[in-house]
């Protein structure tokens, strides 16, 4: 299983497609997602072994030039990040709920990884850019203490990178709300 993830985010769809092709040709990585996102941006998410992903992201940043928005390289990503990106998560039970929101897709992937590594948490959804004006959000669950610890870890990173929009904590979400999250 690939243990590294890389993201390059672009303000140009055409440059994003071109750079994604170059990243794939220069490194042995696989695409997790390569798509346009709102508002007219493009993101390329790749995975593979650490050295290959690091090399591909380096190529992506260089070729993005003035069209680059943000980028991420996580060498030992939490394995629960991948199913959260693809919407293949199904928590056993939603106790407390954490919601993190950023202006950057790349930053949100770093945040999600840090959140999941900070405590015993389960991802619910990791939405990246589509129908969000280019923003991203991450919802996750666990007991109250774990969700609060995850929130603290995520907020610190998002603030440090300058892309935090908001973060909310719900100790006991209503069943009607929970049904909309799954």
| Structural category | alpha+beta
CATH class of the largest domain: Alpha Beta
CATH topology of the largest domain: Alpha-Beta Plaits
Fourth CATH level, the homologous superfamily of the largest domain: BMC (bacterial microcompartment) domain
**How far do the termini sit from each other?**
26 Å
Beta-strand residue fraction: 25-35%
Number of helices: 6
List low-pLDDT spans.
none
Q: Strand sequence of the main sheet, in spatial order?
A: 2-3-1-4
- Whole-number count of domains: 2
SSE succession: EHEEHEHEHEEHEH
Principal-axes geometry comes out as globular
Largest sheet: 4 strands, antiparallel
Q: What is the second-level CATH architecture of the largest domain?
A: 2-Layer Sandwich
Cα-atom radius of gyration: 16 Å
Brief overview, please?
The protein is an alpha+beta fold and about 180 residues long. About 40% of the residues lie in helices and about 30% in strands.
What does this structure look like?
Keywords: Bacterial microcompartment. It comes from Holtiella tumoricola. The protein has helices at 13-26, 50-64, 81-86, 105-118, 144-161, 175-181; strands at residues 4-10, 30-37, 41-48, 68-74, 96-102, 122-128, 136-142, 164-170. A hairpin with a 3-residue loop joins strand 2 and strand 3 (41-48). It folds into two domains: 4-74, Alpha-Beta Plaits; 81-181, Alpha-Beta Plaits, CATH 3.30.70. It is globular, with a radius of gyration of 16 Å. It has six helices and eight strands. The strands form two sheets. Strands 2-3-1-4 form a four-stranded antiparallel β-sheet, with helices on both faces. Strands 6-7-5-8 form a four-stranded antiparallel β-sheet.
């Amino acid at each position: 299983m690939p243990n590294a993830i890389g993201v390059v985010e672009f303000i140009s769809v055409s440059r994003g497609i071109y750079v994604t092709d170059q990243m794939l040709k220069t490194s042995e990585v696989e695409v997790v997602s390569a798509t346009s996102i709102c508002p007219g941006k493009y993101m390329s998410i790749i995975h593979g072994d650490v050295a290959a992903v690091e090399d591909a992201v380096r190529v992506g940043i260089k070729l993005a030039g003035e069209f680059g928005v943000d980028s991420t390289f996580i060498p030992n990503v939490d394995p629960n990040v991948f199913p959260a990106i693809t919407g293949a998560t199904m928590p056993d039970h939603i106790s407390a709920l954490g919601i993190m929101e950023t202006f950057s897709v790349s930053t949100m992937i770093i945040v999600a990884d840090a959140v999941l590594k900070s405590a015993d948490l389960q991802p619910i959804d990791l939405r990246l850019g589509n129908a969000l004006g280019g923003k991203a959000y991450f919802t996750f669950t666990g007991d109250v203490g774990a969700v609060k610890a995850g929130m603290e870890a995520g907020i610190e990173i998002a603030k440090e990178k300058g892309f935090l929009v908001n973060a909310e904590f719900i100790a006991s979400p209503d069943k009607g709300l929970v049904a909309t999250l799954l």
